[in-house]
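step 4 of 6: structure.
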Amino acid sequence: MVAEPPGFFAGLFRSLVRGIAKLGAAVLFLGDILRSSPYALRRPRLLAEQVHNTGVLSLVIIMTSAFFVGMVLGLQGFDALARLRQEDLLGAVVALTLLKELGPVVTALLFAGRAGTAIASEIGLMRATDQLSAMEVMAVNPVGRIVAPRFIGGVIALPLLAAIFSCIGIFGAWFIGVAVLGVDNGAFWTQMQEFVSTEDVREGVVKSIVFGIAASLIATFEGYNCPPTAEGVGMATTRTVVTTAIVVLILTYIITALLL
Amino acid sequence: MIFSGLDLTIPQGRITAIMGPSGTGKTTLLRMITGQLAPASGDVRVAGQSVPGLPREQLYQLRRRMGMLFQNGALLTDLDVFENIAFPLREHTRLPERLVRHVVLTKLQMVGLRGAARLMPAELSGGMARRVAMARAMVLDPELLLYDEPFSGLDPISLGVILRLIRRNNDTLGLTSVVVSHDVEEIAQIADFCYLISGGRVVAAGTPAELGSSDDPLVAQFMSGAADGPVPFHYPAEDYRKELLGGG
């Protein structure tokens, strides 16, 4: 059945309103998390556990992906630069791409798939099995005890993961460019030093911190507010990945436009 | 609208049963007592305080004087039995570890599960999980203990254990207990007073014996478990004959 045009626009309008309402709810939720975070900060063991869960357990997927992304950049970069007879610039091109853009963005996307889904489904299942209610009745604020440590853990872990991603990626590009395709080793590193400035690194750091906040907020928000059913938990994990991907890609454009 | 014109009083130091057909909002009623839900109008008073209007800090203070047993136990799945029971102590007190251990083991002994202290919730049977949850609900020595469907899905032995524990906790610890349930026979054994809720209001109140001999058709249907009566067997539907013959 095809919707009538007025119905189509009414539907579009309704989803727009729903989207804005959800954005507002997420901002209020962020406020709630920040108000409850002193509770989490007083319990370093809880935080360490979550940095381990979101960060350390994501290392394998981050490092493997980074190495292959770096090798692809090495191949494609070499191919493009060779046409301009500028193979020596490979180090600079790869480093700029990774530090400013690919490192933070791809890390955030992988983070959503690995850690974000885990957070959303864990909190969602706690909701579905009344564990969050039980905490409330025991006079323990679940936002402080459950949500805030996971949020802060993610905000700490993602920038570190992004830094590791960029380093391994550069190594992957070096491996293909220098060790396999024969770019001069000295040129690879000196050109990188020449063209990569502190501002470029800063742009990546800013992005990875913003993505850390966005990805952790989306995962905890979806998990905490999911319908308490098996289907609800499933939908929450799916929405975590989809929403994080879209939000990160929009944010990276906005930040790039602002900083350039 | 779930309740309208609902008015009931829980006597102190007794076991009060709140009964009614499924879907009448019995769990909602418990959640209003704990302040997790607020009524659109009207008031809920616990220990002289109006629950809906309390600011978070005071509400949390009040909740420390209550314990609640959830339908499935609602144990924290990432902590073992011992840590689950220690959880309220660690959150709300600064007791030395030796004392925490002492209190937890005492509560576990009461529900007969001291030997299960290091098991994880996933390793427990339904009845055991509910006993652990009971120990956890009692660990801060509450004045009011709320039970949400404590008998559903238990084998006869576990059920007998839970029944005895509810009665014994209430009498030895001087608690006030509220048991929400639709298991008429079980409730009749332990409750001092019963409320029967249906259609958003109290339809009958009295001791189990009084309700059992009531000649109100709804009360009689509920107490005897008849399939049809004032609560119809059929969910409201269009005329059977018309629907079958009408095609579709």
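step 5 of 6: annotate
 - The interface with chain B takes residues 125-126, 129-131, 133-141, 145 of chain A (CB under 8 Å).
 - Chain A has a mean pLDDT of 93.
step 6 of 6: archive
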